[in-house]
Amino acid sequence: MHILLATGIYPPEIGGPATYAACLAEALVKLGHTVTIVTYCGTGNIAVEIERLDVVPVSRIGNVFSRWLRFKRALRFHGQAADAVIAFSSVSTGIPLMLSGLKKPKKILRLGGDFFWERYTDAGGMKSLREWYASSFGFWRMMNFTFMTAILRSFQHIVYSTKFQQLIHEKEYAGLPKSSVIENARPTCAPAGASTLRLLASGDRSVGRPHQPFRLLFMGRFVGFKNLPALIEAVSSIPNVTLTLVGAGPVEKSLRAHAAALGIGSRIRFCSPVSAQEKIRVFREHDLLVLPSVTEISPNTALEAVSEGLPVLLTQETGLKETACIRLRPLRTAAQIAHAIRECIEHYDFSQDNSEVRTYATLAQDWVQLLSSL
Known about the structure:
The protein is α/β, with parallel strands linked by helices. The protein contains 13 helices and 13 strands. It has helices at 16-30, 64-79, 94-100, 115-122, 129-134, 139-153, 163-172, 228-236, 252-261, 276-284, 300-307, 334-346, 360-373; strands at residues 2-7, 34-41, 53-59, 84-87, 106-111, 157-160, 178-181, 214-221, 241-248, 268-271, 288-291, 312-315, 326-329. Strands 3-2-1-4-5-6-7 form a seven-stranded parallel beta sheet, sandwiched between helices. It has a six-stranded parallel beta sheet with strand order 10-9-8-11-12-13, sandwiched between helices. Helix 1 crosses helix 13, helix 2 packs across helix 3 and helix 4 packs antiparallel against helix 6. It starts with a strand and ends with a helix.
C-alpha cells in the first residue's frame, strides 16, 4: 500500500505526534509499504534516508488560512496516488484534508487529543474533558459542536488512542463514522533480561531507593490544562523535594513567577525540550514523573518513562490504566497533588511493570490490518 501520513509536527521537532508519525512510518516501510509524510515545518527540508519514505514539508509562514491552503495543495498533489491518508489532527491537518477534494484514498483520522477542549483550557478553563463535554454552554463548547461534528463526519474511519476518548465521542456526537482503538506503543529500551525498574538508573543509588532530596519530574508543554501552577504550589508544601520542569509553552513566564513568589525558586528547575536520547537520561536522573493535567488522554511521556523504569503519578482523568509503575490519583488541586506525592514518597514500592511491551512494529501491523479491512 501507499500510505500518506498528515501530521502537524515531525522530527527534528519534539512531541508525541512527531514521534508517533516518524516511528509508524519507519515500521510501515519495514513491512514493505510506501509512505509519504506531509508535515508543517519551519524552514528548509527534512532529511530522510529511508527508501520508500518521502517527507514533504509545508511552511508555517503566514496566517492559519494560508497554512491550510498550502497543506491542502500538498495533500492533493501527493495524495492522489495514495491508498489511504491518515490525519493526526482534527483541525491542523484534518481541515486541509477536508478541503483537498481527494476521492481515491481512504481517509482516516487518528485522535489522541481534543482540539477545542485544549483551546478552552488555554483560555483558562479548568473543566476536565468529560466535564466539558457534559456542559451545555460556552464559546469553545459551541465551536466544538459546530465545527468538530462536520470534521469528524468527513472521515471514513476514526482511530482513537484510548477507549476513554472513544466512549466520550460516541456519547456526545451523532452520525459519526465507524471507529476503533489502536493504543499507543509501549516500547522498552531495557537490555535483554534486565528489570526495567531502576536498573537503568545512573548508578548513584540502589534499585528502588530514591534520591535525597526526592526528585520530581514534569515533561510536556507548558499550557493551561497541564495544571502546573497547582503542581508548583504542591511542591512548596513538601520539604526535601525538588521539581524539574522540562518543556516549553506560553505559561512558562507565569510559572517562573509563581515559583519565585512562593519562595521555592531554588527547588524548581526549568529545562528546554530534550531529544529522545536526552529524554532517557532525564528519566534516569529522577524518582517520579508527575503529570497533574486536568485530563491526559494518552500521554506518550508516561509510557516512555515507564519503559525506562521511572514511576509515574497520573491524573485519574486518563485513558491509561493503573499498573505496577503507574499510579492514578485525583490531582486537580495543590492539596490533592501534595497528598499523592507524599504517598508515593512514603510508599516507594513500585515494582517492575509487567505490562506487555508494545512495539511500533506491532502498531504498524494493527494499522495495516485496519486499512486492509476498510
